[in-house]
Amino acid sequence: MKEYGLTKSERLYLREEIGALFESRRRFVCYPYRVVWRLEEPSEEPLKVLISVPKRLIRHAVDRNTIKRRTREAWRLQKGPLRALAEEREGTLLIGLLYIGDHVSRSERLSAAVSKSIGRLCDEMKSGPAL
To answer: What pTM value is reported for the model?
Structure first.
């Protein structure tokens, strides 16, 4: 498997998993993202991500797609430490990155926000209880 890839098995798309993620009370804001996360029993992938940009905030589809593309790029390049931590904890980490900004941000800003979110997730996982 490629270290910097983002395959379908690493994406969160099943209705049951998405429902379980949003039932979780573990969330924080790292502008322009709201991050929702949950640690579950192990499955085939140690890390699964959902990236969402609401139509209510970003009206044009081309802008929503741009934000999602930039976020996916930043995520796949920076997910390494979080993936290693999830493997160490022997669970599957479900993560939702929900865009809450009201305009299209530059790639550098989104990359910095994703990096900050990953750092905070690592800190919360290290200090939090196990499964």
So the answer is: 0.92
